[in-house]
Design a protein that fits this description.
The structure holds two protein chains of two kinds. Helices cover 40% and strands 22% of the residues of chain A. Chain A is built from 13 helices and 16 strands. In chain A, the strands form three sheets. A seven-stranded mixed sheet of chain A has the order 8-7-9-10-11-15-16, sandwiched between helices. In chain A, strand 9, helix 9 and strand 10 form a beta-alpha-beta unit. Chain B is mostly helical. Chain B has one domain. In chain B, strands 1-2 form a two-stranded antiparallel sheet. Chain B is globular and about 65 Å long. Chain B starts with a helix and ends in an 11-residue tail after the last helix. The chains are: A alpha/beta, B mainly alpha. At the A-B interface, helix 2, strand 8, helix 8, helix 9 and helix 10 of A face helix 1, helix 4, strand 2, helix 5 and helix 10 of B.
């Protein structure tokens, strides 16, 4: 049996060599979450990616991206399941022989996936996750981010609270690494006041009444919360009827966005977020992106969609700049970083660790013209390199 | 401090009553039919989805409740009739596998039909507002959840203790084979019990859906809690499920609010900061382990009394 198998494989290999698979074919693996609690985010990621590809003239396998015929394979990490994400990445590297692994929502998945990807000299393009090790001590020339560094929004919120002259804050986050990182990020930039208590709730918690009672007893001036996805929907609905919003200002991050807003509804009105995509940013690229996205998918895009939308343009730019040479993906990554990113978020530069140096905005949730809540961008809060790039070893910087 | 303690106890009771709504159906099905039904969480989810769908069409929460409950009942009966009744004679592993399959099925079903977005489902302001209560504000709707939960508990008690059907249910929990041998149509009874369990899950879903996120997979966490409750309470016992729900609700909520402060009294701050939330989220499982060790049959086992 084994003998026949080997023979068949040899024959297939010979055949492939004879017919000559196109000498130059760019292969991209896109790891997303199509199932599980993160499927909501996954849909936005996928939509943005699809629209980005279309805007680059790519519709199906074989179409060109950056002048090179391109094939794309997809993988599902089933929402933050490290083992499954790793398996998908392995398959993409070994079986599909991809040049680029893109996508990836979750920090734990990208940390696991980054090792085999870098070892195989494959480029890693994160369209969401941006954990601090990848920005710092584990940075790599093969890495490019089209999204954000995890602490960015939290740091921006800290600055915002400082600006708003807040004295006392209760910080709330799910009890896992990203939750703790975001609280730390907030504290890093929050000056002039004090975080009087940190409440870490269970990941995927859906009932916050107990924590809200504690907030009521602590009487802070503001609450800082990081509650992505379903957690945010539940929290905002319960916050609205807790009676706390009268006296306590709410700063949230990754909590109210295009993904969760329909579910939260009116309960979101009056909240303040920090964000790296301002939907009201006045530039043609942003307007075209929103218009085409709404026309194609029938709902407002989110920052998840923007991040993924930017990825195909980056790839096309990198491949074009290196003349379609795909045997040195570090050179492609370098070409992508050089000159920065032309995004609906504006013209944005890269730092030496592959992370973006992008503006963060104050976002207010207001009652829109149609009576439905709407995220409205206000002033820019900060724009600076992330807090970890100095830990990136000199020989790994580009 | 006194106010925080009072509010926390109230929250614990409220959370407990909610747990009871979910676990009552599960304990009936598990205890009386000896059937491990992991799809119970999916029935909870379906209740919430149907409620949200009716709400989106009509704008009426009352109508959502009125339609979601019989819908869940019918869905449960249909599920039992088409698939689950073939599993009674199989062992628990087969039941777990098959009903786990239903979790995946229902999760994908709602994704296909309703999409991945969290569904719009709101309460009318008239029943959901910050209500002044002994010097602080409490969400009025949570008081309604308590009342509904207690009413369901009382109703189930009356049915089980005072009616002929309740007598059969109790008999079924004690000795199924004998009830069948006495000429009772045990199949009918099982279908009905399963339907009631599904209706209770659907009621919990439509009650809780508007205050959290209605989306695919929302039932799984609830299912785990419901299993903890019925293991502590004694499988098959409604009384056990009720008391265990309140205990679990109180332990969970009190742990969440006070665990860190308790640890702070004798531990350094950094340690309390890390261990507090971890210990709080483990507390109900520690409680379950302790109950299993000292009273493996649960606090109020149905079979013995």
């Amino acid at each position: 049996m084994l003998k026949y198998g080997l023979a068949a494989m040899a024959a297939a290999a010979a055949l492939a060599a004879a017919t000559g698979a196109p000498a130059q074919e760019l292969r991209i693996g896109f790891i997303n979450s199509d199932s599980g609690p993160g499927a909501l985010i996954g849909k936005h990621l996928r939509n943005g990616w699809t629209l980005g590809l279309e805007h680059q003239g790519w519709k199906q396998d074989g179409d060109k991206l950056g002048g090179v015929p391109t094939r794309i394979v997809y993988g599902d990490d089933q929402s933050a399941k490290v083992d499954i994400g790793l398996k998908e990445a392995d398959k993409m590297i070994k079986q599909d022989k991809v040049h680029i692994v893109a996508g990836i929502i979750w920090s734990n998945v990208i940390m696991a996936v980054s090792k085999p990807v870098f070892e195989s000299k494959v480029m890693l393009l994160s369209t969401n996750a941006g954990p601090s090790p990848l920005a710092g001590e584990m940075c790599n020339p093969l890495f490019v981010s089209s999204s954000f560094m995890n602490d960015g929004n939290a740091e921006a919120t800290g600055e915002m609270a400082t600006k708003d002259k807040i004295q006392t804050v209760v910080a709330m986050a799910p009890n896992y690494q990203a939750g703790k990182d975001n609280v730390a990020g907030f504290q890093r930039t929050f000056k002039g006041g004090k975080v009087v208590e940190t409440i870490l709730f269970k990941v995927n918690e859906s009932d916050y009444q107990a924590d809200l009672a504690k907030v009521r007893a602590l009487k802070p001036q503001a609450v800082f919360i990081f509650a992505p996805g379903a957690m945010g929907v539940a929290f905002m609905k319960q916050w609205a009827t807790s009676g706390l919003s009268k006296d306590v200002k709410l700063y949230s991050i990754y909590t109210i966005d295009g993904v969760t807003l329909p579910g939260i509804g009116e309960a979101a009105i009056g909240a303040t977020e920090a964000g790296h995509w301002n939907p009201n940013l006045d530039n043609p690229k942003n307007k075209a992106f929103i218009k085409d996205y709404v026309a194609k998918f029938g709902h407002m895009p989110s920052y998840f969609a923007v991040q993924s939308y930017d990825a195909p343009a980056l790839i096309a730019k990198g491949v074009q700049a290196t003349g379609g040479k795909l045997d040195d993906m570090a050179a492609v990554a370098k070409a992508i970083r050089k000159g920065g990113m032309d995004s609906p978020r504006g013209q944005i530069k890269y730092n030496v660790n592959g992370m973006l140096i992008q503006p963060y905005w104050r976002l207010n949730v207001i009652k829109g013209a149609d009576g439905k809540p709407e995220i409205r961008g206000a002033e820019q809060i900060m724009m600076r390199p992330d807090s970890f790039w100095e830990k990136c070893p000199a020989n790994m910087r580009i | 401090m006194g106010q925080l303690i009072f509010e926390t106890v109230l929250n614990g009771v409220q959370f407990g009553v909610f747990l009871f709504l979910i676990s009552a159906g599960l304990t009936l099905v598990f205890g009386i039919m000896n059937m491990v039904n992991l799809a119970h969480g999916s029935l909870f989810m379906m209740g919430a989805y149907i409620g949200s769908y009716v709400f989106q069409q009509t704008g009426s929460f009352a109508l959502a409740v009125v339609i979601a409950i019989p819908f869940s009942l019918l869905l449960g009966i249909l599920l039992e009739f088409l698939a689950l009744r073939t599993l009674y004679a199989r062992d628990h592993l087969d039941q777990v596998l098959a009903t786990f399959g239903f979790i995946l099925f229902f999760n994908q079903l709602v994704l296909r039909v309703f999409g991945a977005t969290s569904q719009e489902f709101r309460l009318p302001d008239a029943i959901n507002f910050p209500m002044p209560l002994f010097g602080f504000t409490y969400p009025s709707y949570r008081l309604i959840v308590i009342v509904v939960g207690l009413a369901v508990g009382a109703g189930l008690y009356l049915v089980i203790a005072k009616t002929r059907m309740g007598m059969l249910i109790r008999a079924g929990a004690s000795n199924r084979a004998m009830v069948g041998a006495l000429g009772v149509n045990i199949r009918m009874l099982f279908t009905l019990i399963f339907g009631i369990g599904a209706a209770l899950a659907g009621l919990a879903g439509v009650m809780i859906g508007p205050i959290e996120s209605v989306e695919s997979g929302m039932g799984e966490n609830k299912l785990i809690l419901a299993f903890v409750v019925i293991v502590i309470g004694g499988i098959g016992s409604i009384r056990g499920a009720f008391i265990a729900s309140i205990i679990v609700g109180l332990v969970e909520v009190i742990g969440r609010v006070f665990m860190k402060d308790i640890l702070r009294t004798f531990l350094p701050e950094e340690f309390a900061q890390t261990a507090g939330p971890a210990l709080a989220s483990m507390s109900i499982y520690i409680l379950m382990a302790a109950v299993l060790y000292f009273r493996p049959q649960g606090l109020f086992p149905a079979r013995t009394g």
